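4.2 Preliminary Data

To establish feasibility before requesting continued support, the project team ran the inverse folding procedure on a target of 49 residues. The structure was first converted into the token representation described in Section 3, and no sequence information of any kind was made available to the design step. The complete token record follows.
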């Protein structure tokens, strides 16, 4: 029983998916910023009804 718990603990300790969460956040905020700027620039060229 102790061996099973120790191996599960060791497997959880070395859990690295290889993707930096800060990198994912930076990409997401960049995409959203570009989309927001595109929306604002598109809205400037239209007449108000």
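Position-by-position output of the design step:
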């Amino acid at each position: 029983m102790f061996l099973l718990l120790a191996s599960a603990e060791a497997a959880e300790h070395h859990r690295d998916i290889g993707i930096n969460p800060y990198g994912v956040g930076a990409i997401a905020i960049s995409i959203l910023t570009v989309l927001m700027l595109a929306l604002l620039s598109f809205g400037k060229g239209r007449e108000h009804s």
